[in-house]
Specification:
about 325 residues, alpha/beta, D-Maltodextrin-Binding Protein, domain 2, about 20% strand, globular
């Protein structure tokens, strides 16, 4: 017993020393559970750059895409809980429990919550040849073409998929959904007229709206955006779709069991990054709003995700959407 106690004390002392030195040992890796070039990847790369100064260490990105973000998320859940492997994921942290019958991790218990990074509004956009020029005309066109309207998305569990589910539910109509392997091919087909509509994050749609390559019908926030190029767009709520609101958020996570001192350092570094003027400017240029509320605290971050799980679960189950 005495030997066991000595060994345990030695292990704790080593862990404390490791936490005190963190993160001098090696670069930190942020796992992004989506392909490079997508909106979550953009956010993660911006954040990685902003984290390097407060951490005093390089931060690199590891794209581990697939299965609606569950592959990359599982990779972090299995990683050593030493603070050197982190996860940036979006609203998928709240929707995976309802979308997948079996997951190799539990959102509520297998991660340490470090804080919300940002909120990203979404925009409802249409192909250039649509006869509608505003939301009222679009609603009438959808009603006149029931069962024929094609609504694209970036794949199961993607932000565009979730927005599409809510959009159909709000209109009390069903559309022909067309899933893609990512946002880029969906937008390419929208511009080309192969699909009619897409609801996606401003980080993906702003350039297309600015270039007038698509028709924009509204934003999914309660208030109009102040972002140049998007400030003239009405909210879908004010345009006639009362109560409609969807915002995609991103958060930072560590594996469960990461030492408290390391978590404290990571949370402080995140708070510093969220105040970095360069980071704020890059996010604002994409139409995103950097978090500054109580959700930047770990406990509030976790409470927020649990509330989002409760919100999205019934919506997804009512739509009968799931993956094995």
């Amino acid at each position: 017993m005495k030997k066991l106690l000595i060994a345990a004390a030695a292990a704790l002392a080593a862990l404390g020393a490791h936490a005190a030195d963190f993160p001098k040992e090696k670069p930190i890796t942020i796992v992004v559970p989506f392909a490079a070039g997508g909106p979550t990847d953009k956010v993660a790369r911006d954040l990685a750059q902003a984290l390097e100064k407060p951490l005093g260490q390089s931060v690199i990105i590891d794209n581990a895409a697939g299965a609606g973000s569950s592959i990359g998320t599982a990779k972090v859940a299995r990683a050593a809980p030493d603070g050197y492997t982190l996860l940036v994921n979006h609203i998928g942290m709240a929707t995976m429990p309802a979308l997948y019958r079996k997951l190799p991790f539990k959102i509520e218990t297998d991660f340490e919550y470090l804080g919300i990074i940002n909120d990203v509004p979404m925009t409802l956009i249409g192909k250039p040849s649509l006869p509608a020029n505003n939301y009222k005309e679009l609603a009438a066109w959808i009603d006149a073409n029931k069962g024929k309207v094609n609504l694209g998305n970036a794949g199961l569990g993607a932000a565009s998929h979730l927005c599409g589910l809510l959009f159909q539910s709000a209109l009390k109509t069903e559309m022909q959904t067309v899933p893609y392997k990512g946002t880029a091919p969906a937008i390419t087909d929208l511009i080309g007229g192969q699909i009619d509509l897409l609801c996606d994050q401003t980080t993906n749609t702003k350039a297309q709206i600015d270039g007038k390559k698509v028709k924009a019908f509204g934003v999914t926030t309660r208030k109009r955006l102040t972002t140049p190029g998007l400030s003239d767009l009405p909210t879908l709520d004010e345009a006639g779709l009362k109560g409609f609101e969807v915002t995609i958020w991103h958060g930072l996570y560590a594996p469960k069991g990461t030492p408290p001192d390391v978590l404290h350092k990571l949370n402080n570094a995140l708070k510093a990054a969220l105040k970095d003027p360069a980071f704020i400017k890059r996010e604002e240029d994409l139409g995103a709003v950097v978090a500054s509320d109580k959700r930047i605290e770990p406990a509030e971050h976790k409470a927020f995700v649990e509330a989002e799980i409760a919100k999205w679960g019934p919506v997804i189950k009512a739509a009968g959407v799931y993956a094995d």
